[in-house]
TrEMBL record:
The keyword Transcription applies. Signal peptide: none annotated. Gene3D superfamilies: 3.40.50.2300, lambda repressor-like DNA-binding domains. GO terms for molecular function: DNA-binding transcription factor activity; transcription cis-regulatory region binding. InterPro entries: HTH_LacI, LacI/GalR-like_sensor, Lambda_DNA-bd_dom_sf, Peripla_BP_I. This is LacI family transcriptional regulator. The keyword Acetylation does not apply. Keywords: DNA-binding, Transcription, Transcription regulation. It holds the Pfam family LacI. Residues 4-58 form the HTH lacI-type domain.
Amino acid sequence: MSNANIKDIAEIAGVAISTVSRVINNHPDVSEETRKKVMEIIEETNYIPNNSARNLKRSNSKDIGVLVKGIYNPFFAKIIQSIEEKVAAHGYTMILHYNNDNVNDIEAAIEFVKEKKLKGLICLGGNFSNLNESHFEDLETPLVLASTDLEEERKKAFFSSVSIENEKAAYEAVNYLCKLGHRKIGIITIGEEDQCVGNLRLKGYKRALECNHISFDESSKEIGEYTFESGFDALNRLLNRVQDLTAVFVTSDIMAIGAAKAILNRGLRIPDDLSVMGFDGIDYAKFFHPSLTTVNQPGEYMGKRSADILFDIIKKKKEHQHVILKTELLESESCKKLI
């Protein structure tokens, strides 16, 4: 296997990519048995680490990486554009990489940094709940998480972030539906691959129900992914199971548009038969008919702040920062007040 890469080595050895990286870079926190096994596989496959892994202290790199979770969420488009503009203004080059949904986000980030010798990395979306100190030693480069969230404060000393108050924003969206008179409100949210943001928005949904004296019903929850098709399928499953819903909160606009299409395909009307609340504020939400009521995230500004923070760290101006941006509920045509 002359073209083996670090991922191949990890798969053959049955260990994480980060473990292979630690072996290559002689980190002490690897068992002797694992170290020997990995080194034997490296020799057998004739694996040559990029530019010799021992020279991975990349002082001359002018490349900034942007790692995007999935390829279907148009919310990231404006963020990426604003990051690229900032990166170019600093005389650097942006390298964009889309992570497959089946690949661990932390390991994908480490491999991306190593292979491209990145000077800094911005991650859009993804699940980084299992980040620990050894991962940051492997990365050896400044990291900014944008449009994702970690609930554990102790980990925030190792990276920067630009995010929103996901739980609060979801609470306000569902509370808005409650104030319109809705009491049977379903939710379509994200599953295992987005535990951070998905869990926080689910918490906000539950808290809004509780504050309005509405009991949470597990049967009113469905799981989707960031695609039109997933929202379409999830809404159909939800309505097959629960027939008396009057509204549904969907935790991304792209899923909400798919869900709305499923509603219309059943001969139902929006919002007369079922109100739909989205989340993100993408352009599609405005031009879909009926236009979606949604929670607007400041995507363009999120991208600019992420890049600014990254370059502050690269140029040793500041330590890690954690910025919380405000959201706005955009009222439109997809939600109806009940009499």
